[in-house]
Amino acid sequence: MDYNTVDTHSQLTQHVIRTKRNIKGWYFYCFSSEPFVVSAVATYIPLLLEKFARLNGVKINNHSIPCIDPHTLYNLSSNDTSKCVVPIFNDRMFIDTSSFPLYVFSISVLFQTVLVITVSGLVDLRDSLKFKKWTLITFGVIGSISTIFISRLNSSQLYTLPTLYILANSCFGVINVVGNSLLPRLIHDSIKFLPHLKKEDTDNQTTMISGRGASLGYSSALVVQIISIFLVKNIRDNNAKLIASANATSTSLSQPIINVDPLKDIQIPVLFVGIWWFFWQLPMIWLLSDLTFLSTSTSSHVNRESSASNLIQSQSQSQSQSPSPSPSRPSPYSTKEEEFSLSYGWLSLWESFKHARLLKDVMIFLLGWFIISDSITTINSTAILFSRTQLDMSTLQLIIVSILTMISAMIGAFMVPQFLSKRFHWSPKKILLFLILWATFIPFYGILGFFFNSIGLKEKFEMFLLAIWYGLSLGGLSAVSRSLFTLIIPKGKESTFFSMFSITDKGSSIVGPFLIGLVTDKTHNIRYSFYLLFTLLILSLPIIKSLNLERGKREAQQLSKFTPHHEHNERVD
Questions:
Q1: 29 CB neighbour count, 10 Å cutoff
Q2: What is the bridge-based pairing of β-strands 84-88 and 58-59?
Q3: What is the b/e burial string over 246-279, where b = at least 16 CB atoms within 10 angstroms of the residue's CB?
Q4: What mean pLDDT do residues 388-407 have?
Q5: What is the pLDDT of residue 199?
Q6: Which of 35, 238, 469, 543 could form a disulfide with 221 if both were Cys (CB 3.0 to 4.6 A apart)?
Q7: For the chain, where do the domains classified as CATH 1.20.1250.20 start and end?
Q8: What would the pLDDT profile of 78-116 be if each residue is shown by its tens digit?
Q9: Which CATH architecture has domain 343-561?
Q10: What's the pLDDT tens digit per position in 141-166?
């Protein structure tokens, strides 16, 4: 018996097992963290920030009168929509209670962007799956515990809430980038070691793994929201029993005083999200691990054409949400220079910008997408705050709005682009323009409320209908934007250009909430924010209209020809 053959077979078997375990570990990353952004950030955190502001606020016309009296049942059992401001920095400033969450969102995205760029460079230089795993776990634990702490705050901790949220959101930003950067490595290893796959299966394997990850993420968020409905309903039922009991036993003509926690129906779902995030990420500790190097004899059996390996990395990068450098690509820093790795992310961003500015249509697209992404993201937080303060919608109703948006976004991402492309034979550019117009209807409808008494977001049922409309546009825009961007970037530089796309997508959220906060602060009517959102979306139309796909493809091909060999991944035609 050839013991070398036995040893080789054993190593190959171990690599197959570890590759499958790594893919499962990546699925747990998607499953554990997605509810934070879909459930907590999109629904509960805006409500909690606004409620904290009102509980610490004063009447807009008389700063000596509290916005909400925390000792009376009447104000706590209803969503008082009177206009209030919250004093900050020892009463040096007074900002609208609806503006407070928007300013916090803007600041949190700023911190998140800075941290993500810094940490991503550190992770890229230490391109080890073990290092990335512990980065995911470390920031995931900090983020989930911060989320749990948010659920334990009382209304007097006005500054602690934004601090914990900024910390949790920044941690999520890091694990989102690091987690998505694992996808090219997983594709690379699965094609290389799983016996039933060949290099021709790269596209299908990428679609399958990323698709399953996205589905698991959305599914977990949906499960969390459904369970949250029962949690919130149980809290409301208990409060109703307290109120009924107090009213039945009260002999006074005045309204009885009952200590009902005004934050509980929001904080309990936040607590559930934090616990979900914390525990479902733990399996990654045991599942994710580096593949050990094979012996020379083993390598000859499993190491297929080197160009195929490069092809895998190039194609998987172009389809991953936040691509990373190839696992085999040498670091541009020597060992002695790695102490400066914290600056590498910023240097990489500068390199990305230098490449992008050579391509006119890439710059046009990024400018347009900055405005589109900013507007679409801001619509969500604005709508949640509008629903609470203007339509007096309950937490339970807003959870249903969130679920409708989520389901519609999934449908929009998978069906809308395909339908428009096949039915009308539209190009990606034309589909993108149509979806922008589709999304523009949302702020336009809100503006109608200034001129009509019966339409224009005057009733709660209108928000449920607009949630479906918004979800379809959100999912469709997300899918079409990436496919269109892929057409105009040079082959072999997908990682460089998608890093620019990611920064544009995430960083744009700094501007929108801040501007909406200013508008609300000046007018004390969040409905005026619809004018700004409508203007921004209309402004993006001529920018995207000026995009020339044929010219963009041509310029991308020309630039790819001049890409140095060490930067340009070899491809098999």
A1: 28
A2: antiparallel
A3: eeeeeeeeeebebebebbbbbbbbbbbbbebbbe
A4: 93
A5: 66
A6: 35
A7: 343-561
A8: 556 678 999 999 889 999 999 999 999 999 999 999 998
A9: Up-down Bundle (1.20)
A10: 999 999 999 999 998 999 999 999 99
